[in-house]
UniProtKB/TrEMBL annotation:
Gene Ontology molecular function terms on file: L-fucose isomerase activity
Native species: Mucilaginibacter mali
InterPro entries for the chain: Fuc_isomerase_C, Fucose_isomerase_N/cen_sf
Single GO biological process annotation from the record: fucose metabolic process
Isomerase in keyword set: yes
Isomerase is among the record's keywords: yes
Keywords linked to the UniProt accession: Carbohydrate metabolism, Isomerase
Protein name: Fucose isomerase
Length: 469
């Protein structure tokens, strides 16, 4: 997430407006990019008139420049210091062949500078640029204010949100997910369409759980890689009362899962847990999943492939780990609060009091001694973005809901991974989730990124997105 983002920059110009506005805009944008630690790819001042784009010749030159940096550019910023050449902007993007998000910025006019020598008319020019992009079939993002100066703090926030949109779009178009094992028979809720995902650039690589467990069972506590992973786990979280033999089982499984991720170059995993792992191997995989999620390789239980896809999307938007949770319980009689829960696989970013423990609910059927590896911990108050990506097979679409709220410090006396969420109009949200056939799993992230996700997944990925307000 720390990689420096690169944007292609188009500075629009119109010949009967003051050319110095282009030079001023160039200086403004380069200073802002330097401040925000962004890379800019734009025409040099000697490659066109002051480095602006005006007419087809400039558009072709700028498109060729963008093409040479195709692998670096994650988005395009269009700057309109004056009315701009709307066709030149559209032609540049079309000729470049880049299928990336586009942000349109336009400078405000000064009421004291509306004479011929100093007026901009970018308010009007932005409408014309958007009209042409729409005609060309090019998707674009708007600033919340129709015109805004790059030096305004609000624009810095919008630009960085746009960078996050670019990050989500780029990541989602080439994500690779590992599905480890079969969906548990009792969990019809996590069924999904591999084919619909593939049409959207999302690849799913499957492996039978027996292959993973077979490889793990061939390892012993004396293998160097097992010792290395055991040490990693011991440094990750206190083990509480977890027996040594259970820790060895957890470490062996961790070795094989990490090898699988590396072999197939995966970005995320969804792992069969309930209840084959406990019955056939004797531990929970939660600790390994938590470590992967903390290291930005999100992992979801119960082979919830679109759940881990949701985790990955939120991670891309925020730059921080996500967690798969259950919409689990009401919180007393507060209609806008609920309990979020899972046996124990959340990234430790959510669990300041993290401890390796067992899974009491699962233990009632498979024996508590076979469930060590689950984590115990309470998530404290923090910002909350929640949401879910799902394939709707009858409709042949991918659908999404997202929203924001808060995690609170309200009292909660239970076990496992747990949190209390406060969400405006929670009852209305639950109505939406139930009426539209979404899963009982949802994803949480400690951020305020619902708008970024809606723009990336709705506008650019073309998915059906509902943002709960």
């Amino acid at each position: 997430m720390s990689t420096k983002a690169t944007l292609g920059v188009i500075i629009g110009n119109r010949d009967f407006f003051p050319d110095r506005l282009v030079s001023e805009a160039r200086a403004d944008i380069l200073a802002l990019f330097n401040k925000l630690n962004l890379n800019a790819i734009l025409l040099g001042e000697d490659e066109s008139k002051l480095g602006g784009v005006e007419g087809f010749r400039d558009a072709k030159r700028c498109a060729e420049l963008f093409g040479r940096h195709r692998d670096e550019i994650s988005g395009i910023l269009v700057i309109l210091p004056n009315f701009g050449d709307e066709i030149g902007v559209a032609e540049t993007i079309k000729l470049s062949g880049l299928d990336v998000p586009v942000l349109i910025q336009a400078y405000p006019d000064d009421l004291s500078k509306l004479d011929v020598a100093r007026r901009r008319d970018a308010w009007c020019g932005k409408i014309s640029v958007c009209n042409n992009l729409y005609q060309f079939g090019i998707k674009y993002t708007l600033t919340s204010q129709h015109v805004i100066h790059p030096n305004q703090p609000e624009f810095s926030k919008e630009l960085m949100d746009f960078v996050a949109v670019c990050r989500v779009v780029k990541g989602m178009k080439r994500v690779r997910i590992g599905a480890v094992g079969a969906r548990p028979g009792a969990f019809n809720t996590v069924r999904y369409s591999e084919k619909i995902l593939q049409r959207n650039g999302i690849s799913v690589t499957t492996v039978d759980l027996s292959e993973i467990l077979g490889r793990a069972n061939h390892l012993t506590k004396d293998h160097p890689e097992v010792k290395e992973h055991l040490e990693k786990i011991l440094n990750y979280a206190p083990i509480g009362g977890t027996p040594d033999e259970a820790m060895i089982q957890i470490a062996k499984l961790d070795v094989v899962l990490n090898q699988y991720v590396e072999e197939h170059q995966l970005d995320a995993t969804a792992i069969q847990c309930w209840t084959s792992l406990q019955k056939n191997y004797g531990c929970n995989v939660c600790t390994s999943m938590s470590i992967m999620s903390e290291n930005m390789l999100p992992s979801a239980c119960e082979v919830d492939v679109t759940g881990t896809l949701s985790m990955y999307a939120m991670q891309l938007a925020s730059g921080s780990p996500s967690a798969l949770v259950d919409w689990n319980n009401n919180y007393a009689d507060d209609e806008n609060k609920c309990v979020l829960f899972h046996c124990g696989n959340w990234a430790k970013s959510f669990l300041p009091d993290i401890e390796i423990s067992n899974a009491p609910i699962l233990g009632t059927t498979v024996g508590v001694e076979n469930t060590y590896g689950a984590l115990d911990g309470r998530t404290p108050a923090s910002p909350l973005t929640y949401g879910r990506i799902s394939t709707d097979d009858p409709k042949g679409i991918i659908k999404v809901y997202v929203g924001e709220g808060m995690l609170t410090d309200d009292a909660l006396n239970t076990f496992g991974n747990r949190a209390v969420a406060e969400i405006p109009d929670l009852q209305g949200l639950m109505q939406y989730v139930c009426r539209n056939g979404f899963e009982h799993h949802v994803v949480m992230n400690a951020s305020k990124t619902a708008g970024i996700l809606k723009e990336a997944l709705g506008n650019y990925m073309g998915w059906e997105v509902y943002q709960h307000n």
